[in-house]
Amino acid sequence: MAQLNPADILSVRGHGSMKNYRLRRRFSLLGVLALGALLVSACSGVTGNTSWPGLAASDTTAYLSFAQNVFAVDLKSGKELWRFPPKAQTGVTFYADPVPTANGQILVGGYNKILYELDASSGKPIWQSSLASDLYVSPVLDTAEGIFAPTADGNVFDLNPQDGTLLWKFSAQHGVWAQPVSDGSAIFVTSLDHHVYALSAASGKLIWSKDLGTALAGGATLAGNTLMVGTMDDRLVALDKGTGQVLWTAKAGGWVWGPPAVDNGTAFFGDLGGTLHAVAVSDGHELWEIQPDGAIHGTPAVGQGVLYIGTKAGTVYAVSEKDGSILWQQTAGGNLYGHTLLVGDMVLVTSYGGQTPLYAFSAKNGSQLWSFLPAK
Amino acid sequence: MWDAIILNPMMNALLFLYSLLGQNFAISIFVFTLLIRLITYPLTYQQQKGMKALQTLQQSKDWQEMQKKYAKDREKLAQEQMKLYQKAGVNPIGGCLPTLVQFPILIGLYQAILRELAQTPLQLLDFSSHVYSFFPQADALIPINSHFLWMNLAQPERLFLPFLPQLGIPILAILVVISTYISQRMMTPPSTGDQAAAMTGMMNIYMPLLLGYFSLTFASGLSIYYFTSNLLGIAQFAAMGKVDWRRVIGLAPTPAKARK
Fold first, then answer.
1. Most Cβ neighbours (<10 Å): which of A233, B14, B40, B45?
2. Which of B77, B16, B59, B82 is nearest to B252 (CA)?
3. Touching check for B96 and chain A: CB below 8 Å?
4. The total number of structural domains that make up chain A
5. What ipTM did this prediction achieve?
């Protein structure tokens, strides 16, 4: 029997000459290579259930939520004091900011839908609450009225500080990703369902709600009677805390995620378009704006007339509160999405995708004091 | 390259459907899968036509006789098979190219659904960065409302019945397993060799189980996509001609078994 040539085998109808066959084979090869390149590029960029590290600090210790643990880090040395859980557990991860409480404990919620109270000196769990049906994205609010725990399932739980039992709950239409704020008698909650809610701290009863027409992923800041909220449609909106009526709106150059920091009657906030704004709390008029090297996601830290912010490009800036002039800038690396903290004369920033998750800089000149990389 | 050519258009099209369809993401996934199936229909048709021709050829008398005649001479058998393919105008690898071309589209669809069900702040930032700046009223649409019937589309699905409050029934995972099994049985050609038959048999078991496992553990929005895609595939194949339902449900013997 005669040997078959490749052109006959691969041709659908067997009508291709050897020349046509070679031409088609070249085109097929190019096509497969182009397809391969497209598929390889498809493999990048899918983010799993991760986020940027969460951070809080007392006078002596930084608390870092990062991947499978919560870490306590000595502020002087940058060394680890303890971690929770002592051994990483599958499915247990932490990204919400931990919250040091008035009675010396740490409250932190996990992506495993559990809220923990930990002993601040040892990291040992005191109680845990499993009421949530979705992630703990944001820090809880610890007040004399109770612990207000917002969750991605849209609920805000008021928990008994002694044992974490439920006192009341309020349900929004979508997730609550931001820490509520309190004026003592009411708490103010921002939700992805576009609403700001004012609730009675004692009973959870709705006092008022305001639809701002777009997702409210970040929290609010309360300055006197003015409640300021950043929106996804590039605004900072000021509401009357008693009625929820809009007092003024300040236009930004991108999504305003982090709530503003307030000092001396001025609100300071960044946007994802990369602009840092200073506006008057009284009427929202712009005092100054500057453009650092990237998107600003977190809330600035404020102290002694200086603002400290981190950018998505990985740079930490110290900026004069008065006129926005840059006093120093320092590269940390990665994306600085988290809030910046000022503890004494130390600036703390967390980094997503950087070499280490936590950096400490001198507030005076920006020199790096230490960085923290958890031991394996 | 991937984002510009495949992912961004798909994510924006899916978001557009979501805005048109009453902000119901489950229905948007269904309609979007249907549209993708319609767009890729010429490729699927070509692939399924080739597969059907292969099935017919492998069930023919000539093919069966050739298998018996050259059972001990594999090289000769391969040569004769090629001749028979050529004579019948069937390309044994003809179904592969349309599948390859569809592959990036399916990956894109999968990624678009997963990314739009953003569960964490980082995922929401990522989602918003893919939305075209000229998309009308995108700010009012994001984040996606992931609730549909009893499901949260961003989480694995379980149905809790009032009389069984502790036992969540994975309805979607069960539907995905059944529909994948039927789809696999329907679309894989009957194998002619013992080894090939064993391979096909294993695929018919493992693929439904694998997708069932994904449905149990990943966002249920993806399960809706798997189920819809399976249903449309089955309907498309059935519409092309006679489906051997006896073979699909395992009542008719495969050619390999029949020869024994």
1. B14
2. B59
3. no
4. 3
5. 0.85
For residue B111, list chain A residues with Cβ-Cβ distance below 8 A: 42, 46
| Residues making up chain A, counted from first to last | 376
**B111 inside 8 A of chain A by CB:** yes
Q: Which residues in chain B have their CB less than 8 angstroms from residue A50's CB?
A: 120, 122
Q: How far apart are CA A371 and CA B155, in angstroms?
A: 36
**Same-domain status, A235 and A129:** no
Which letter, b or e, does each residue of A339-374 get, where b requires 16 or more Cβ atoms within 10 Å of its Cβ? bbbbbeebbbbbbbebebbbbbbebeebeebbbbeb
- B104 and A42: CB-CB below 8 Å? yes
Cβ distance B111 to A14 less than 8 Å, yes or no, reads no
> Do A335 and A250 belong together in one domain?
no
Name the residue in chain A with its Cα closest to that of B112: A46
| A–B interface: beta-carbon pairs under 8 A | 106
What's the rounded Cα separation, in Å, for the pair A130 and A113?
Answer: 7
A82 plus A129 within the same structural domain: yes
Q: Is residue A363 part of a domain?
A: yes
Instruction: Say whether both A301 and A283 belong to one domain.
Output: no
Is A272 within the bounds of a domain? no
Q: Kindly state whether B252 is in contact with chain A, defined as any CB-CB distance less than 8 angstroms.
A: no
Domain match, A79 and A194 both: yes
Domain ranges of chain B: 2-259
Q: Which residue of B has its CA nearest to A218?
A: B121
List the pLDDT tens digit at each of the 260 positions of chain B: 889 999 999 999 999 999 999 999 999 999 999 998 888 888 878 777 777 787 788 878 888 888 888 888 888 888 888 888 888 877 777 666 666 777 788 788 888 988 999 989 999 999 999 999 999 889 999 999 988 999 988 888 999 888 888 888 999 999 999 999 988 888 776 665 666 677 777 778 888 998 899 889 888 888 998 899 899 988 888 887 656 777 666 666 555 554 44
Start-to-end C-alpha separation, chain A: 67
Hey, are the CB atoms on B86 and A152 less than 8 Å from each other? no
Structural domain of residue A341, as residue ranges?
292-376
At A221, which amino acid appears? Answer: T
